[in-house]
Every structure is written in structure tokens, then in C-alpha cells.
Amino acid sequence: MNTKKRKRMKLPNGFGSVVLRTDGNRRRPWSVKVTINGRQKSIGDTATEIEGLALLAEYHKNPSLFAPALITFSEVFELMRAERFPKLAKTTQVNYLSAYKHCHRLYGKKFAELKIGDLQAVIRDTRDTGAHYAMQKKVRQVLHHMYTYAVKYEIIDPAANISQYIDIDQHVVKYPKTPFNTRQINRVKKLGDKWAMTVLMMIYAGVRTSELLSVVKTDVKLRQRYFIVRESKTAAGRNRAVPISKKTIPYFEFWMQQPGKYLITTDEGSQLTYHQYRTRFDSVMAASRCKHTPHECRHTCATMLDNAGANDTAIKRILGHASQGVTKRVYTHKSLHELKKAIDLI
Q1: Distance (Å, rounded) from C-alpha 261 to C-alpha 342?
Q2: Collapsing DSSP states into helix, strand and coil, what is residue 72?
Q3: What's the CA gap between 262 and 273, in Å, rounded?
Q4: CB-based contacts of 152: which residues, under 8 Å, 6+ apart?
Q5: How far is the C-alpha of 280 from the C-alpha of 199, rounded, in Å?
Q6: Which residues contact 254 (CB under 8 A, 6 or more apart)?
């Protein structure tokens, strides 16, 4: 970071400091310090100066002290990131960082001076890379969060929140979701290999692929017949109990005996990424003569539960959908019984 930029972010007296340490080759060379009881105390180390400033902002919860009119787009993003990212699932963090890269034309511009034309130019840049509705929506979400943050901390006036006026392409469904039919499920069952098992585990649990891959063995309760999803893309999906169907108990037992901390792993016991799993999933689809995506396993579960007449609240709890009047993250024996009763209908 150049000297001019650091001057622009001059800190008020008593706010703290971000100091570059030159002793050795450090991965996090910036030391963040605040004054407590007359003495300076380190509150952490960061890889860059702007991350250090974001840490100070989080510590004081008052980014507007950074001369609001001079704060750049990239600085607002880092400040927002320091506050918001710890509350997000890892997959969502990765998606937001990917979306932020499409905003490169705005990085050095003063945030308070941005116009709607600047934001629409970012959407055009995103479209020009070949990205369609999904990525454009993520870019718009990132911009919306940045403007919400800027208003919250008085970096801009509420009337200057122009993120609500961003236009993106209309959503066009190229590949409509199609649930597995009974014959296809039976063909997957006949394969009998461990990756076919995981497909059936998703079909009869309704979890997202990322959720299943993040399940650790200590959160699998075979005797009580449920497992806990800790990481999810939505708040309603996190820390939820998912019932294990009687049909898939043998598959869970098999995977519990495999090496590694996580339930679904490589042969060596390492956690799988989505792309690594997708290769294995596609092999199962080819062997079973099916044409489905992993997300269609979840769609299949929802469809089967609905067709079987399962309780609507139970369906939402199983899938991790938000529902009014349902207490999240608190599962009594009675509610678990209802979830298992619902999943056993399919």
C-alpha cells in the first residue's frame, strides 16, 4: 500500500495504530495495537494494512472516524468484510470474494462519490466475462451489503444508498430441476458402491452437497438416528438436526468406519471439496444412466416428502428453510421424533 493511501486513512488520536514489522519474513507483518489503561496492547496481526484498519474498525465499531469522504470502495469492502464475514458460511465467503473481483473498476474510487452508473458498469463487466444471473446477483448482494454497512456507520447518508437501483439480467432457468424417479433411485441402489451411497444419503436427507461434506463424525448420532448440519449457506440451515432415514442407516454406518474426521472423505480420510465430490457424483450418474445434478437430490427429498403428506413444518426443518413460529437450533426429543416420523414416510 502506498504512502498516499495511508495518509488518507489517518487515524484519530487514541484510536490505535497499524504498524508494519520488518523483522523477518512474516505472513502477517502488520501489528494492530490499541491503548488500554495507558499502555499499548496488540489485538492481532494481519497480512495487509487495510485488514489491520478493518480490525481496528471492528474493535471500535466506528469506521466513520476514518474521514468518510475519503474512504475508497476497496476500504469499505474490507471494513464490511471484517464485520460481516465471521457470521457467514465459508462457501458464502468464497462466493462474495469471487463477486468482489468483478468490482475491480471501483477499487480505488471514493465510495461517497460513486453513482448508479458506476455500479451498473460493474454489472456490465460481470456480464462481459460470460457470467449470468447467478453471479450478477452475488455482485449485487455484495454491493448492497457494502452500502448497508456504509449507511450504518455514517460513511454515507441513507439517501445515498443507490444499491437498490441496480439492474441485473432476468433469471432464465436453463435446466429445470427434475427429481429422481423410483426406477432411477433403484438403479443407483443397485450400484452398491460407496459413492452411490452418498447420492442416496442426500436423497433421503435433503441436505445440500456442501452441508453433507461438512458433517463431522462426532455430529452423527446413529442410535438416535440424526446428524447435525453445522455449516450452511443460510442461517435457518445452520446447526439443524437432520433425521437419518431407516433406509440409509447402513450407508451412514459404512462411512462412519472410514478414516478421517469428516463423514464423507477421500480414501485417505481428507475432506472433499465440492468439485472433487462432483466428479464422483457424475460417475454414479453415468453408471446408473441418470442425468441429474447433486442439488436435484435435495429437490427429490422435498418432492417425496410433499407427496407423502409430511407435515409442512417438519419439511422446512429437515431442509433448513426459514419458517415463522419455528424455534431454530432447539430440538427436543419430541421434535426429533416428528422429523424422523416425516423422513420415514418416504
Answers
A1: 29
A2: strand
A3: 12
A4: none
A5: 10
A6: 194, 197
In our burial notation (b when 16+ CB lie closer than 10 A, e otherwise), range 121-159 reads ebbebbbeeebeeebbbbbbbbbebbbebbbebebbeee
CB 32 within 8 A of CB 45: yes
Listed in order, strand segments (DSSP E) in the chain are 17-20, 30-36, 39-46, 220-221, 226-229, 240-243
What is the C-alpha separation between 230 and 219, in angstroms, rounded?
9
pTM above 0.85, yes or no: no
User: Which H/E stretch holds residue 12?
Assistant: none
Q: Read off the C-alpha cell for 23.
A: 523483522
Q: What is the pLDDT along the chain (346 residues), one digit of tens a residue?
A: 443 444 445 677 778 888 888 877 788 898 888 877 778 888 888 888 888 888 888 788 777 777 788 889 998 998 888 888 888 878 888 899 999 999 999 999 999 999 999 999 999 999 999 998 989 999 999 999 999 999 988 889 999 999 999 999 987 766 678 999 999 999 999 999 999 999 999 999 999 999 999 999 999 999 999 999 998 777 777 889 999 999 999 999 999 999 999 999 999 999 999 999 999 999 999 999 999 999 999 999 999 999 999 988 889 999 988 765 544 444 445 588 889 999 999 9
The conformation of residue 259, written as its DSSP 8-state character, comes to S
Backbone angle region of 14, left / alpha / beta, with phi > 0 → left and psi within -120 to 50 → alpha = left
What are residue 18's DSSP bridge partners? Answer: 32
